[in-house]
Amino acid sequence: MHTRPRSRAVLATLLGLVLSTLPACTDGGSKPAPAPPSPGAPVGPSTTMFGAAEPADTSFADPAPTTLGVRFTSTLPGLVAGVRFYKGPGNTGTHVGALWDAQGRQLAQAAFAGESEVGWQQAKFAQPVRIVPGATYTAGYLAPAGHYAAAPNAFDGGPVTIGSGPLTAVGGGFAGGGTLAFPAQSHENTDYYVDVSFSPTESASHVPDAFTPGYWSKWPATARWKDPAKLPVGVWMQDPTTPLNGSDEAHAFAALGVNTLVGLWDWPKEDHGQLAAAAAAGLAVVAGGQACDPTPGGPAGAAAWACNTADLPLAARAAQLGGGTLAGYQLADEPDMNVPNGTATGAGCMPPEKLGGFAASLRRQDATRPVLVNFGSGVAGGARSPGCPTDFAAYTASADIVSVDFYGLTDPSSPARSKGVRVYAATAARARKLAPGEPVWVFLETPVQMQGASLTPSGAKAASPAQVRAAAWAALVNGATGLSWFCHSFAAQGQQVDACLRDAASAAALRRVNADAQSYARYWNAPPVLVGVATQGAPVTATLRTAGGRTAVLAVATDTPELPDGGPATATFTLPDHWTGKLRTDDGRTLTATDGTFTDHFDAYQPHVYTLGG
Length: 614
Prior knowledge:
It is built from twelve helices and 28 strands. The protein is an alpha/beta fold and about 625 residues long.
């Protein structure tokens, strides 16, 4: 059971009050703020589902005339101005696009004009079409010569999420023939890179069931996370008792801004002072709870890890050890990639009902602490191994804390087009949509994680401190409400568990990112509101948040397959309600927004914060 989220209407009212009290920019008294828009008019910036994303296969080897489409939903009411599609070199001829409702009734149609040879194309309807939240619509276009963009199996794991806006692509479709038709057929869950241009008519959060820190009130052990000015920042599987520099690693991590240990070695069977060391350094602990079932008649599968005489139910074990710092239990690692008992890495999926049984076992043993599950590429990116569910929300429903890892910078097994800071934005956005109202913690790499991997055939390189920082910002901008560090190294000389403490660049990266997380924690813990971004150069991802009576735009430059190391960017932002006024930047500059827009420059992987009203 989750705490009741604030309604969209309340969020809109709060945002409106904050925006209305900010001083209007007069530019010397010559330009007043614009009049409020008429009811039902667009108040938010235009947005899309896929942005500037490019398919790996831009010209599928099918010459037949075909209508391609995408089914989508929105969390906000608004207006669809037109249809977009990605055009490859073989997709020639005259293109026509349309929008349909869930019953296949055509709502609007438009011809594409002035097309480029390749890239995203857009057709504008004569009149925008009003859509409502929660309903399913289909946008499509006719490719008269075939050779359309296609990504088979893209929807295998559910919705495709590129960004964290109000729109979600839920499936692709096609229809054969030389005339435009409702694309009702499907094949291999293919994404055909069809999109829409959408503008909301409410300046509310596009996450109507957004997480808030009040969520932590459900458990006595999580009181430390209720403060909206603080963000949980964890580190994975460390031994806090390990001696280091005259103290121990618990204090070393605390000095870098880590406040939570996620997983303890051999816990709960063995502790050897780990909880006490964490408590002495002021660290919370989410420990690896053993999913055993000490009572008969539990859910199916719960007894698979049955307790024996050496095991104590978790609440008793925590009390025995003095578990005041124990904030929760870590149930499983990547069950969306590892088959039933978690021993066969990458071999398939643990059945969701088995994961649910294990979670119920933990809660029966101790109902005073939440259950964390760390997910991998299934929840993070929709990749489906054998036995995986078609809806990964079946997994997140078992967790009280949704943790997710997808090592988008240094994993040598990931293809080049799947690497980059931008992966962290998509990972957070997808997890956020799969876990409504719940905290989402995103794992980060360190510069040392794959150090030496360049000696392998993969050619992978270590992440730079700038990339690591940008990855954290991309995750937070797109919905993460906590961070976790993976500090292990798999260098050529062998695995090192605490490598980030032994490497100066990694330690410095942790310290800086953790400081960023806490400096803007009130914003990261606030419901997001859509802000439009148009860029030249590298892409920029952004969000608008209101907290403590102030509103800010938080943004970071990312990368593309063509710009794998990022690059400079010029970004033009569009604010809701045509807001006009002064903005104060994080580096001390003053900018002006006129009729809702302002422009700024980013260096590669640079973040910026713009406080409205100065």
